[in-house]
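Justification of computing resources. Each target in the renewal requires a structure prediction run like the one illustrated here; the chain below, 90 residues long, is used simply to show the kind of job we budget for.
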Amino acid sequence: MLLAHPVVLDDLMERYKALAVLRADQGSPESRQEYEDVAYSLCLATGTSDIDAALVAASHQLPGARPADDSLLSGNALATSGGRGGVDGV
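Resulting structure tokens:
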């Protein structure tokens, strides 16, 4: 399987997190479409079929990833952690 470049993954993850914080999935048709496009691109880049798996896979592929850092899940995990990963918030 081909792996996406870490810069591409990082950009997609940052865009997804920003759109999730802004609740783009509940906004205008254009913002919902952008949210869905970024989620789809992240799934495609990681070879996964859902956004939670894509976020985990992407976080594991980035330089400096820790094995236990699966905190970047969609939904409430972003809102409650402020988008910061890891058990200790680092």
